[in-house]
Design brief:
By secondary structure, the chain is mainly α. The protein has a domain at 57-89. Helix content is 47%, strand content 0%. Keywords: Mitochondrion, Ribonucleoprotein, Ribosomal protein.
């Protein structure tokens, strides 16, 4: 019975095997990321899933502003009106801090 096969002979065999089956020769078995790189790209599939962006009222507003025309957005007007009414009743968003008081509230308690 023959003794153990030398490591150099096994590495040669592995190199020939990698050439034959078009795989990466990695005798130290380091993590190379080839598994991830061999996978199909996901970008085109994900991009095709979402519909293409269409023109919005904001886009039209920018174009028409250059021509000195005005675009009316009824939803935005209604939203701004409801915010104004809420502020009159005292239900609006609180005012932002200014000056030195900014850092005062952000300290962590231990």
């Amino acid at each position: 019975m023959a003794g153990a096969v030398p490591r150099s002979r096994l590495l040669e065999l592995m190199k020939v095997q990698c050439n034959l089956f078009s795989t990466t020769y990695n005798p130290d078995r380091l993590r190379t990321g080839n598994k991830v790189l061999r996978q199909r790209l996901r970008g085109p599939t994900l991009a095709a899933y979402y519909p293409r962006k269409t023109a919005t009222l904001e886009d039209l507003k920018k174009v028409f502003k250059k021509l000195d025309l005005q675009v009316i957005n009824p939803r935005e007007d209604e939203r701004l009106e409801s915010i104004a009414l809420a502020k009159l009743r005292g239900k609006g968003a609180p005012k932002k801090k200014k000056g030195k008081d900014l850092t005062k509230g952000k300290k962590k308690k231990r």
